[in-house]
Amino acid sequence: MEKLEFFNSYKREMVDFFGYDIEFIIGDSSKEVEFYCEVPSIILSTFSDVLKPQVLSAHRVLENYYEENKVHPRYSSTLLEEISIDIIRYLGAQTSIENIYKFVQSLKEISLKTYENESVSLGIIYFPQRTRAKTENRLNKMKLDYIPFDDVTDLKTLIDSDKLIRKIIDGKSLALVVNDELKVTGLAKKRKEGKSIKQEIFSKFDVFEATRHELLIKSYVKAIFEDSKQKLTDFPDVNEAIIRTFEESYDIPQEAIERFKKSQCDYHYIDIENRNVNWNFSNNYMLTHSEGGWKLRDYNLLLILIVELLYLVQKKLFYLSSSLMGDFDFIKDLVAKVSHFVNTIKGNASENIGSLFIILKEEVKDMLYRTRRDQKSLEIYNKKFKELLRNEGISLKFYEKTIRDGEYLININDMDNYYLQLISSVDGAVILDPYFNLISYGEMIKSEGVKGIRGARSSAALGGSKFGLAIKVSEDSDVTVYWGEDEMMRI
Asked: Is 266 helix (H, G, I), strand (E, B) or coil?
């Protein structure tokens, strides 16, 4: 029990760092302490895959502290930094912990520097498993030119030797290239016809995310199918042959898993912006250092949480149709929409745009496989609007035409990203239906009777969470998810 108490003494730091509630429990051996995640899921293996890096790293670091005569770190920031460094190593870094630590300290120091009173902007491409000889070919595939230095050098020495670097290596036209030993080997340069370096980097990350989503979709369909297989036999047009064909079609072959592993990016992208350090492993998974502290931002987990809370916890949705292919198409379409939505959330957070989104939940009896709804569908929500909105109804008038496609509600997949970001930045909430069709924006949410004393946006988010999923983006870039007046996650 002494060991369990030791681990539990860091629970607050772990919750703040990961963004979701956790519990430490004694495992089957009655000796080992294990993590228990409080995030709901019907597909535990999905969460296991997503949570594995951070859970293993946190466990290793706490085990080391405990074994070293039960020594507590002097500051919680020391603990979180060690976990962050362990995650970096777990996700590809082949060099020593000492090298990673030294490099991280250099990043933190550089983030506090200025150029003519402006904060440093710096872009770094890190190849954790590539030598200098292979770098040029890899950058060429990324549509970037490589300019090698005569000598490799450490980051701090380079930055201190040339003040101009703080200004021109901004990740748009130029970025530093770092090898497997975390030494700077040269520059990556944007080509005339290409996107900015950061845009090129993240577009390549998209390939990895697409493969992940393919496996995620198949995992969902397979799990739901296994759960509902017995009920499917009740349909007259479903026989054993159809079921067997479905099992074979949506099983996840080993080659797909191997393709996923091979598609994982062989580089990390590190940028320093607004005195923050962002270590990006992919589009949706990053470590950030801001105001002296580390935080893990896992947008993959946000995507999974939205899908499962809004849809998959209500598994009866998939009993409404005998069309097995319909389930697959529905989930495929759903994951695409949620992914687009999460990108909007991430964009607002990265640009410190405070915003609030309410995704209205829908009763199982009203759920249909459809992607467009005409304005009559708003009648379904009339009662909810009276309870949800201060105006007891949609308040848009002239601007309503900007979010309609004739008589139809417009889906966020069909919206201009700049306009979506614009309308989410105004006071009030963006209201979406469960199919991510845009109902309204700038709406004031009733917040009377919510738990505790909170700011206006937090209170509105809690009030909105009575009617669906509420996602609040703060000006400090934190993303908080509420469901049923409970805080589910803070990225």
From this structure: coil
